[in-house]
């Protein structure tokens, strides 16, 4: 059993990991930047070590400082959370060589799935369908045009090292392709320090359907069903739910089929610990592999609600070398869960980040309501990191109950001092198409353009 774990992250996920450790009687060590002195994860952990200035590059991304903190505190393992160093194979390797367990996939699997291009190659080898596209990185304009002509427009240019919905450009013809190719490369270089891009067919109006997987050190891998994350703004998830209404109502057999494909990819990578295999599903029920997220995911709580399985606890057990306690047939799904990512952003000003001091804070509760957050009244959201305030999760015996609880919970949530996305999520929950479960990844764009039209008409 681990006696002490260092949490190499901040915000709600650091709190989430500390909670799991406490329940397992494991002592915790927080690391924090100068901007996070008053953070909840610092207060909740048994020990806390400052690792540098506010900028992530000076703190949460500093492998040397995190390892020093781990050595000083004498921990058995490090949990990387999501974002920051969580998908950095080198970091996992450094932990392994310092005799500190990395609570995540083994570094070899991480290398195999290093980026979107290597992951595509692996999926192809495993015989899993993927959007037609380039074989790896596209090196120049001419190749970009040749590939796009071959697969047919529209196409999407994507950063191989991309993440968080950034570094993507859709192109409908040669002109927008050439322009998109260069801007995507420049953006990718700036955001990810890697200008490599590849091209794939742009799938129109799909659902984003992803499968949670768990793997142990004996090579057993299972999936825990899907999450539908089609409600996105600029390719970033805003609302997630499980089960997927598309699979539940239209393509019931797909759950088993895509689930098996997800496990196959994980097996091909000799994957261990928790991960997520992302797919797009079109209106005909065709599915296409997107990428593997080699970490715990933001939206993991909805899977926990319908399976009754604590994913972070499982991550810790698997990292200790414990075998999976469930076989595929042990995994049962019950009820419906929805998550809203509540961000400090102004939906009336193009979602401009709204950091600052939270004056009043009252969070919803009651049956079927869960809030994962690190904030409190008087807490100041620093401008340096992402703008998430917390995750509001509701559970009901069916989709309707989960939605009704979500609307009720959103209306109870009171936060003053910063702008939040709560009104935006209320509008989504009230939308007739969302209520019916009929939507795709362009849902938010349509909703916002409708709202804009109404505003213009009102002014006129
Ligand atoms: P999820 O699929 O778990 O919802 P997101 O793509 O929303 O994941 O990312 C989760 C967090 O990790 C966000 O804070 C996001 O900004 C960050 N993140 C994800 N990928 C990267 C990356 N490649 N580089 C930097 N940050 C990333
Ligand atoms: P990230 O690493 O930023 O999460 P993903 O490859 O997972 O990038 O894609 C994020 C989102 O972008 C998808 O959920 C989808 O909405 C959109 N997207 C990505 N690739 C395609 C594609 N080939 N066709 C249509 N939409 C896509
Ligand atoms: Mg993704």
Jot down its keywords.
eight-stranded antiparallel sheet, five-stranded parallel sheet, binds adenosine-5'-diphosphate, Dna Ligase, domain 1, 25% strand, binds magnesium ion, Rossmann fold, D-amino Acid Aminotransferase, Chain A, domain 1, 3 domains, 16 helices, alpha+beta, 460 residues
Can you describe this structure?
- The protein has three domains: 100 residues, Rossmann fold (3-Layer(aba) Sandwich); 70 residues, Dna Ligase, domain 1, CATH 3.30.1490.20; 253 residues, D-amino Acid Aminotransferase, Chain A, domain 1.
- It contains 16 helices and 22 strands.
- With 460 residues, it is an alpha+beta fold.
- The strands form six sheets. It has an eight-stranded antiparallel beta sheet with strand order 13-12-9-10-11-14-21-19, with helices on both faces.
- Helix 7 crosses helix 8 and helix 13 packs antiparallel against helix 14.
- Helices cover 36% and strands 25% of the residues.
- The structure holds adenosine-5'-diphosphate (2 copies) and magnesium ion.
- The site of magnesium ion has 2 residues, from loops.
Q: What does the secondary structure layout of this molecule look like, with pairings?
A:
Elements: E1 4-7, H1 11-23, E2 27-33, H2 40-44, E3 47-52, H3 63-73, E4 77-79, H4 89-97, E5 101-102, H5 107-112, H6 116-125, H7 141-151, E6 155-159, E7 168-171, H8 174-192, E8 197-201, E9 207-215, E10 221-233, E11 236-242, H9 245-249, H10 254-268, E12 273-281, E13 287-293, H11 300-307, H12 311-319, E14 336-343, E15 345-346, E16 352-353, E17 356-357, E18 361-362, E19 369-373, E20 380-381, E21 388-396, H13 399-412, E22 414-415, H14 422-430, H15 432-436, H16 443-459
Parallel strand pairs: 1-2, 1-4, 2-3, 4-5
Antiparallel strand pairs: 6-7, 6-8, 9-10, 9-12, 10-11, 11-14, 12-13, 14-21, 15-16, 17-20, 18-22, 19-21
Helix pairs in contact: 7-8, 13-14
The structure holds adenosine-5'-diphosphate (2 copies) and magnesium ion (MG).
The site of one adenosine-5'-diphosphate has 12 residues, from strand 11.
């Amino acid at each position: 059993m681990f006696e002490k774990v260092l949490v190499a992250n901040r915000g709600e996920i650091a709190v989430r990991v500390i909670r799991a450790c406490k329940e397992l009687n494991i002592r915790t060590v927080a690391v924090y930047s100068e901007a996070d002195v008053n953070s909840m994860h610092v207060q909740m952990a048994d020990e806390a070590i400052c690792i540098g200035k506010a900028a992530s590059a000076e703190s949460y991304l500093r492998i040397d400082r995190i390892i020093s903190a781990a050595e000083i505190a004498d921990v058995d393992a490090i949990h990387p959370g999501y974002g920051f160093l969580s998908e950095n194979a080198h970091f996992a390797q450094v932990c392994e060589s310092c005799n500190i367990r990395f609570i995540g996939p083994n570094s070899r699997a991480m290398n195999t799935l290093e980026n979107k291009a290597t992951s595509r190659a692996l999926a192809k080898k495993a015989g899993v369908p993927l959007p037609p596209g380039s074989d790896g990185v596209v090196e120049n304009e001419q190749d970009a045009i040749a590939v796009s002509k071959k697969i047919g427009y529209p196409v999407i240019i994507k950063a191989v090292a991309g993440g968080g919905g950034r570094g993507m450009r859709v192109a409908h013809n040669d002109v927008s392709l050439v322009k998109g190719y260069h801007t995507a490369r420049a953006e990718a270089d700036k955001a990810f320090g890697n200008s490599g891009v590849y091209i794939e067919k742009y799938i129109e109006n799909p659902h984003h359907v992803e499968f949670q997987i768990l793997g142990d050190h004996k090579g057993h891998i299972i999936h825990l069903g899907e999450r539908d994350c089609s409600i996105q703004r600029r390719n970033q998830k805003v609302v997630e739910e499980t089960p997927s209404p598309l699979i539940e109502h239209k393509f019931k057999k797909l759950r088993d089929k895509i689930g098996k494909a997800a496990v196959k990819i994980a097996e091909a990578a000799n994957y261990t610990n928790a991960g997520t295999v992302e797919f797009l599903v079109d209106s005909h029920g065709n599915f296409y592999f997107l990428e593997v997220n080699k970490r715990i995911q933001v939206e993991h709580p909805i899977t926990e609600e319908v399976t009754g399985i604590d994913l972070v606890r499982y991550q810790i057990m698997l990292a200790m070398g414990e075998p999976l306690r469930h076989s595929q047939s042990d995994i049962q799904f019950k009820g419906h869960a929805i998550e809203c990512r509540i961000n400090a952003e102004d939906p009336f000003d193009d979602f401009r980040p709204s950091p600052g001091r939270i004056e009043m804070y009252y969070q919803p509760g009651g049956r079927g309501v869960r809030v994962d957050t690190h904030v409190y009244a008087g807490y100041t959201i620093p401008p340096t990191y992402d703008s998430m305030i917390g995750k509001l999760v509701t559970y009901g015996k069916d989709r309707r109950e989960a939605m009704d609880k979500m609307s009720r919970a959103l209306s109870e949530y009171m936060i003053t001092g910063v702008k939040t996305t709560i009104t935006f999520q209320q509008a989504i929950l009230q939308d007739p198409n969302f209520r019916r479960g009929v939507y795709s990844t362009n849902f938010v764009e349509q909703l916002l353009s409708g709202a804009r039209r109404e505003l213009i008409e009102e002014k006129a």
